[in-house]
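Weekly modeling sync, notes
Attendees: S.R. (lead), two postdocs, one rotation student

Agenda item 3: backlog of single-chain predictions. S.R. asked that every request posted to the team notebook include the full sequence so nobody has to chase files. The rotation student volunteered to paste the first one in as an example of the format we agreed on. Action items at the bottom.

Example entry:
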Amino acid sequence: MGEWHTGNPVFVTYVIAVALTVLKVMGQGWMTVYRMTRVGGGYAAPEDLRPGLINKAPDPSQLEVNDYVDRSRRMHRNDLENIPAFWAAGLVFVAVAPPLWLAQGLMYGFVAARAAHAVAYATAQSHEVRATFYTLGSLSVMVMAIYALAAVM
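Predicted structure, as returned to the notebook:
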């Protein structure tokens, strides 16, 4: 069984990878807010048209899709569709005490794949480029889950 303390390098690998991906998820949300305030639009809900400190002169056009804002919103949704599975699979993976080289390769590989996916998405690369990085990250998560299943069966 895996050990849940900082003396276990597999656990430390997991902690680092989770912390980095938490920062990615939360940072992407802040990036969307930054983009909305920068362009004064791309808002998502009708109540966003209420006057306030940031939006002093609301206009119905602010609810129209703005690709600059929506690209960040899509990136955030993509993170929320993929990163929590990594958190869960990584947790059960640590529990079955994999070799350090495998844990580092899969976990840091996932983080690198998600970072590359974010850069590809932010720079409007083709679906094939984004899909390549998605696939690498997805395979990392699937290998961790399969490894954990195999270890306990």
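Discussion: group reviewed the output briefly. Residues 110 and 137 are 5 Å apart (CA to CA).
Action items: rotation student to repeat for the remaining queue; S.R. to check formatting next week.
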